[in-house]
Amino acid sequence: MDTSEEKTQVKEQFPTAVSGEDEARRKSTLKHLSDSSKVFVAKGEKCPEKPDLLGSLIIQKKALEHYTNGKEAMEKSHYEKAVICFSKAITLQPEQIQLHANQAEVYLQLCDFQSAAACYKRAQLLDSGAYTDRLAFIYYLQGQCLFDQGLYEDALEAFSKAADVKPDCRAYAVRSVACLTATGQLTDSLKMVNDWMATDSPSSDLYVLRARLHKKLNQNSQCYQDVKTAVALNPKCPEAGALLLQLQEAGEEARQRAVDRTLTGQLPEALCMINVALENCPEDERLYLFRGTLYRRLKDFTAAIEDLVKAVELSEDDRGVGGQAEDRDKTDEQGSLQEEVEFQLVLTYNDFAVQCFSRGLYAEAILLLNKAIEEEKGQTGLYLNRGDCFFKQGDWSYALADYQQAEEMQPDDPAVQLRLAVLYNTMGSVCFQEGRFHEAADMFTQAIRYNPTPSQYYEKRAKAFRKILNWEGARQDFICVLILDPSNEELPPMLMSLFPGCSMSDVLSSPAGHAVRVQLMDTIKAFTASSDQQRLNEKLQKMTLTDQDTWAHSEDSSEAGKELMCKNQEEMQIIVKDLLKIKEAALSFLRECSAVHHTGPHRPPPSTQGNWTNPPLDSKGSRTTTGDLGSDSTSQK
Questions:
Q1: Which InterPro entries match (predicted)?
Q2: Which residues contact 270 (CB under 8 A, 6 or more apart)?
Q3: Alpha helices (H) along 359-413
Q4: Residues contacting residue 336 through CB under 8 Å, at least 6 positions apart
Q5: Three-class SS of residue 70?
Q6: What structural domains and CATH numbers belong to the chain?
Q7: What is the pLDDT of residues 499-526, one digit of tens each?
Q8: How far is residue 411's CA from residue 624's CA, in Å, rounded to a whole number?
Q9: Whether the Cβ atoms of residue 116 and residue 138 lie closer than 8 Å to each other
């Protein structure tokens, strides 16, 4: 084959030249490259305009299509499909806030609160102020669903998130309190409510909420105060009214239990019950009266006086707001209640004075009795008790004034007469030792007038008559002693001086002896007929107001020998002084008590008191005298 032909065949099988189509493509590429770069543009020439790109329009169109499909799926309740459509749209256009909001609403329809909240959070990243209310509401719905399922810890977390998103909405914080309460974190709940009330103006609802928390914490007193405040702010608040009714019913039930315990003598148990009643109704003056009476019977006089004074104050407050015609019955009831409180207060002062008397604290007992007399000036027993204290202190004039005051109020009271007899006998003994025999004879005469039974009175008066040379009176008194106490050791020497040369039988059988016997027996019979001597002896052994028939509430009055609740004398003195400050300053009371309460003669000044010395005490605590008068075993108690 010719060489030229071979070359032609190779060219056909492996063409080395560029075909026309390839050449055109190559030129177009070079032209595009030169047109797209300023390097290939001659100086002074303009670049050709770039054609419009359609990619963004395509994306927008496709996102709109997904959004439309998602809306249609929502309308048909195809929520899973709607989630997918909105997800595709968000992928194409994540900066569109509405797409996130729509997807959140779809999740909300599916009760997927976590995903719904996440969608709204993404929307808030794009716009910080958007959908705040909706996000908080979703957290609230989530928390409520968890709360209904009993998942209180998870619910608390959800409600806390809602409160953080919307801090000005109190409803979300209140649900947090409900969760804390359900989990037993009552103290934390109460702290939250207290913080709200400190920062905001409290409302009746807040007071009711706090009252319920107090009730769960068994703080019934604080609960009652909050309920009363809630009712004052909103009298028509049904929750407050219902809660107040519950407290009143609980208080009445506890009071009735206290009454039952008291009737069976279980005073400590009754005190526990009445404390429960007062926690539920801390403004009921009847309960303070009840507890004050229990404290008095339990000898806790400090607490008794505090409760009774509180009852008086509450009763006065109630009477102050009453007074209308429709409240007349209630006002009368409150008035009788106040009288009963004042009566119990007098009893408490008296019983406390009895305890002081039994420990030898006569000055403190006098102060307490002064308070009792200030409250009630018409009770004989108070004057008798104060006179006893003055007698023990040796203040004869004060004691005589109190006994005489009691005699004016009850002239035939044997207790008064016996005390006067003892006092006149003691004063006569003092006068005899000081050489004032006429006064001594008069004093012994008064003692015999009030109590003609003790032979010592006649013996002492006979000795006084001998000193003033009244032989007839001395002989008559000797006969009385001989009749009443034939074994008296003083009779033989007296017989020798008054009836020399006569025997005792001769004296008794004489007409004078017969006349004295008849007169003495008539006098003693009249005296003993006026009272039951055994009852009087028992009564004089303890220091009470009067007998139980007169004072129905004094059946538990203190006995003189029982131990005080106080540990020592100093403690007793402090308590007494504190009690006297309940209504007034102790200092002003001490300055005024003498002028206010004492109705008898004043005690002689120090310069004249030398004539009223105190006779010494014997081993039994009785006053004794020495010298010609002999011993006086008659005592007051």
A1: TPR-like_helical_dom_sf, TPR_2, TPR_rpt
A2: 257, 258, 259, 261, 262, 294
A3: 362-375, 380-393, 396-409
A4: none
A5: helix
A6: 56-204 (1.25.40.10)
A7: 888 888 888 899 988 999 999 898 888 8
A8: 28
A9: yes
